[in-house]
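seq as requested:
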Amino acid sequence: MMQLFHWAAAALLLLCGWLTGSAFQVRTEQHILQLQRTVELLQRIRQEIAYRRLDLEQLQRCLVQEKLLESDAAPKLQEIPAPERFDDAERLCFEQCFAGLGQSEAAQECERLDYYSARFEAFLHQTQQKAASGQGLPCRLGLAAGAVAALILL
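struct tokens:
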């Protein structure tokens, strides 16, 4: 009976290792999705400023209606918090981008948004490359860690 418990514990350790690796992979996918949404948001803001020249309050309401922003994200467009999965460089870039909204003419604002869109596209490309190079690796590493823990247990 004791042997059965050892084998069950070993199987659970393997499963936990696999699930830990899977959770890491999901976090990476969520990070990529947040970067994609940020690029879309910046492009949409640029489009609104370039063609409709809405003030920031109207622009924020428009973005909420289109579900590009959450209605309770921030009282002002310039105060929108960076997505939680962003690293320090991405968070700083996001905060600088949004803090500077509404402080220049439409043409200059569009140039700024083009610059920040390009930066976030570079972040996205870099993150996608890292994810592609390690595809499936977190699950395998988690499984290997679980196997090592199971061997130590047995």
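Residues 49 and 105 are 10 Å apart (CA to CA).
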